[in-house]
TrEMBL record:
Keywords: Sigma factor, Transcription, Transcription regulation. This is RNA polymerase sigma-70 factor. Residues 105-156 form the RNA polymerase sigma factor 70 region 4 type domain. The keyword Transcription applies. Belongs to the sigma-70 factor family. ECF subfamily. NCBIfam families: PRK09636.1 (NF007214), sigma70-ECF (TIGR02937), SigX4 (TIGR02957). Interacts transiently with the RNA polymerase catalytic core formed by RpoA, RpoB, RpoC and RpoZ (2 alpha, 1 beta, 1 beta' and 1 omega subunit) to form the RNA polymerase holoenzyme that can initiate transcription. Residues 7-69 form the RNA polymerase sigma-70 region domain. InterPro entries: ECF_Sigma-70_Domain, NTF2-like_dom_sf, RNA_pol_sigma-70_dom, RNA_pol_sigma-70_ECF, RNA_pol_sigma70_r2, RNA_pol_sigma70_r4_t2, RNA_pol_sigma_r2, RNA_pol_sigma_r3/r4-like. The keyword rRNA-binding does not apply.
Length: 309
């Protein structure tokens, strides 16, 4: 097998490791490309290509995460991961761990961990690496890695996300939710939301966003029921998609450009959390991005009784 063939066989795994460490599609893709360059430039073939590539991608991702954390401290408003539509790495034996670990809720929970704790936790708990390979990947002893894992588990335990177990039920509820958004059915929305639902947006200061997190079924249903019909009157379309393994949708303007991605956490038959990613920098990998400010101005004119331009 050639170097290219070996690398391409492992590319899905490498991307999945990098994305879970970084929470960024674009940064994960850059890390995968740099991993290939280092593998291609290596004068000798490693004994284990998987171990070599996994170590390289992990170390690169840890370095990027350390610098990214400084930027995130200055981030305007809530920070969310970049939306992921499809996880390229599939393993039937690890399907539950893989699905849960890529959700928005899980990735946000991982932000509690140090870069080393995060890498060790993911390699062990999600990808089932043995401690010898983990130690090589993070350049620590096996004993140190076991200690890092204990600390990581402790941080993750209490906040571990829970989701509706039945995938079909989740999807049916999401379909009803987005139908109610389309029609502005405030009463219908309210019945689908948990009493303590949260609506949170990530605009990063680069797109219109809520001034704060919106709490409670009444407040969230009124806001969504008043805003979305005016958006749809502008030709905005809703494209139901899984977002990070959970029910969601991509909203596009009349020209097909991406306006926002919405991800839902569903539990006990209700929507628990609604996360809207509006920062254009986090949507660019999904296609051309809409001018959210212009769309918002047009929608406001409609709500005031004006006309579209």
């Amino acid at each position: 097998m050639s170097k290219v063939e070996e690398f391409e066989e492992l590319r899905p795994l490498l991307f999945s490791i990098a994305y879970r460490i970084l929470g960024s599609v674009s940064e994960a893709e850059d890390a995968v490309q740099e991993t290939w360059l280092r593998f291609d430039a290596s004068p000798t073939r490693p004994t284990s290509t998987k171990a070599f590539l996994s170590t390289t991608i992990t170390r690169l991702s840890i370095d990027v995460l350390r610098s990214a954390r400084v930027r995130r401290e200055e981030y305007v408003g809530p920070w969310f991961p970049e939306p992921l539509l499809t996880d390229p790495y599939q393993d039937p034996v690890r399907s539950v761990e893989l699905a849960d670990s890529v959700s928005m809720a899980a990735l946000l929970l991982l932000e509690r961990l140090s870069p080393l704790e995060r890498a060790v936790f993911l390699l062990r708990e999600v990808f089932a690496f043995d401690f010898e390979d983990i130690a090589a990947a993070v350049d620590r002893s096996e004993a140190a890695c076991r200690q890092l894992l204990v600390r990581a588990r402790r941080h993750m335990h209490d906040g571990r996300p829970r989701f509706e177990a039945d995938r079909q039920e989740r999807q049916e509820l999401a379909d009803r939710f987005f139908d109610a958004l389309r029609t502005g059915d405030i009463g219908g929305l309210r019945t689908l939301l948990s009493a303590d639902v949260q609506l949170v947006g990530d605009g990063g200061g680069k797109a219109p966003n809520f001034a704060r997190t919106i709490h409670g079924a009444d407040n969230v249903s009124r806001l969504l029921g008043s805003v979305f019909p005016s958006l749809l009157a502008l030709g905005i379309t809703c494209e139901p998609r899984d977002i990070n393994g959970q029910p969601g949708a991509i909203y596009r303007d009349r020209d097909g450009r991406v306006l926002q991605a919405i991800a839902l956490d569903v539990l006990d038959g209700h929507v628990q959390t609604i996360r809207a990613v509006l920062n254009p920098d986090k949507l660019a990998h999904l296609g051309p991005v809409a001018d959210a400010w212009a769309v918002t101005r047009e929608a406001q004119r409609i709500r005031r009784g004006g006309h579209t331009s």
